[in-house]
Specification:
Elements: H1 5-14, E1 22-25, H2 31-37, E2 42-46, E3 57-59, H3 65-74, H4 76-79, E4 91-94, H5 97-107, E5 111-113, E6 122-123, E7 127-131, E8 135-146, E9 151-157, H6 164-170, E10 175-180, H7 188-197, H8 206-222, E11 225-236, E12 241-243, E13 247-250, H9 260-263, H10 271-278, E14 283-286, E15 291-295, H11 298-310, E16 317-320, H12 327-339, E17 345-352, H13 357-371, E18 377-383, H14 386-396, E19 401-402, H15 406-419
Parallel strand pairs: 15-17, 17-18, 18-19
Antiparallel strand pairs: 1-7, 2-4, 2-7, 3-5, 5-6, 8-9, 8-11, 9-10, 11-12, 11-13, 14-16
Bound molecules: guanosine-5'-diphosphate and manganese (II) ion.
Manganese (II) ion binds near residues 51, 231 and 245.
């Protein structure tokens, strides 16, 4: 689960990381007062669940997001703009409260498109008004799990303020990793040593940088994060070390012991993902193709995607309905698949073990009627209560394409999608 920058900074501050003073606002009317409280000279920052805001672009309506995303992708140099650039990105500097209101008006309620938002962009519903810092140097720091090591690692770079992927491509030596022993953690003396030897930071800032790294790791551990990232943390002209940005992803598996519910902003999440979750369908993943898939079992679902691809088609999604014997769950699965406007044909691949084919069939019939599905539906059904299921389908009077095995089902679905 992702959280907003203002929430991430709250979390970091509670673990001793220095962050600028700030106020989160949702209304234009609150911007001036917030800026005044912070001394007038502020940064106005769009709060969305995506990075690259500084170099993003703001557009009026959702109708223009796709075109802007294409432009950003195809001509990045011409279209990206720094924070100060004349083109409107999602991070704006303002020298006084009146300017802050003017900058806020340019982005609040609009759509922000960055290289991370995808073509839909993100609607800006919150702003962080933050005191400005005068930047002397920008650095990068993150803590995440290294899957190969099976261990948390601290990653730092002196090339902060730009996409870490670009640094990795252009100058990989500028990125240094420190595996963190789970027993020892990251005590400040170790963190200081790292700041000194690796980042070659000025002497006056070593102590603060050590505290920042230790705090970062503490926050990571305490919040059950999968990643905490500060890009950039800055050294100010007054030699203060401050986190100018913060990005945190939390591990959904820890929801039972963490106050994730209060941090969650579902308006930032994908509507189909939310519906899948509400319906108890744990795993729905949107893909690029046009063949909607409803499968029981993750392994079978993966095999289904492979088989469709092998047959020359492209799956529109991964969807594992799990072991269900509830008609409504099947209808919900079809509802989610049908929300994807790219879907031209649907492939239902069910092997009834604990799940009963007749109940799945009942669900498919109910779904077609309730949702008025127009797409051709290919059914590959086998296992418990197969005969009863096939009888229901025959009695329904609806049109289905049936297949005895997955290979032929995939070929039929690919053909149906192509002809649709
Ligand atoms: P991102 O583009 O989504 O990663 O948003 P950031 O919070 O990292 O902001 C982008 C850039 O804005 C940073 O890399 C900084 O260079 C700049 N920036 C952010 N806060 C300040 C500030 O207080 N003062 C100045 N001068 N620049 C800032
Ligand atoms: Mn950043």
């Amino acid at each position: 689960m992702k959280i907003h920058e203002y929430q991430a900074k709250d979390l970091l501050a509670r673990h001793g990381v220095s962050v600028p003073r700030s106020r989160m606002v949702t209304k234009l009317g609150d911007v001036k007062g917030a800026a005044e409280e912070l001394g007038g000279k502020v940064v106005v920052k769009a709060q969305i669940h995506a990075g690259g805001r500084g170099k993003g672009r703001v557009v009026e309506g959702q109708g223009k997001t796709a075109a802007m995303f294409k432009r950003l992708e195809t001509k990045p140099r011409q279209n990206e703009g720094g924070v100060r650039g004349s083109r409107v990105g999602g991070v704006r500097l303002a020298s006084n409260p009146e300017r802050a209101v003017a900058e806020a008006r340019k982005i609040l309620g609009k759509y922000l498109v960055t290289h991370q938002t995808g073509i839909a962009g993100k609607k800006v519903q919150r702003l962080l008004i933050e005191e400005q810092v005068t930047i002397a140097d920008e650095y990068y720091a993150a803590v995440l799990i290294d899957n190969a090591l099976g261990q948390a690692v601290l990653i730092v770079s002196s090339e902060g303020g730009q996409a870490i992927e670009e640094v990795a491509a252009k100058n990989p030596k500028a990125i240094v990793r420190l595996p963190i022993d789970p027993h020892d953690g990251l005590p400040p003396y170790k963190a200081r040593e790292f700041a000194k030897s690796v980042l070659k930071m000025p002497h006056a800032t070593i102590l603060q940088a050590g505290a920042l790294f230790s705090g970062l790791y503490d926050a990571f551990l305490a919040s059950d994060a999968t990643m905490v990232e500060i890009n950039p943390f800055v050294v100010t002209r007054e030699n203060r070390v401050i986190a100018a940005d913060a990005k945190v992803s939390l591990d959904d598996n820890a929801a039972f012991r963490q106050p994730f519910a209060s941090l969650r902003d579902t308006s930032e999440e994908d509507a189909m993902d939310l519906l899948a979750e509400e319906s108890g369908i744990g795993s729905y993943i949107k893909l690029e193709g046009n063949i909607g898939c409803m499968v029981n079992g993750a392994g079978l679902a993966m095999a289904t995607l492979d088989t469709i691809t092998q047959a020359g088609g492209a799956p529109a999604n991964f969807l594992d309905i799990g072991t269900v014997n509830r008609v409504e769950r099947v209808v919900d699965a079809l509802r989610i698949i049908n929300m994807d406007k790219d879907v031209k044909a649907i492939l239902v691949n069910i092997f009834g073990g604990m799940a009963r084919v007749d109940i799945i069939a009942e669900g498919v019939i109910a779904g077609v009627r309730e949702l008025r599905l127009k797409q051709p539906i290919v059914l590959r059904l086998n296992g418990s209560n197969l005969e009863e299921g096939l009888a229901l389908l025959a009695e329904s009077g609806l049109e289905f394409i049936t297949a005895d095995d997955l290979g032929s089902a995939a070929r039929k679905a690919v053909a149906a999608a192509r002809d649709a």
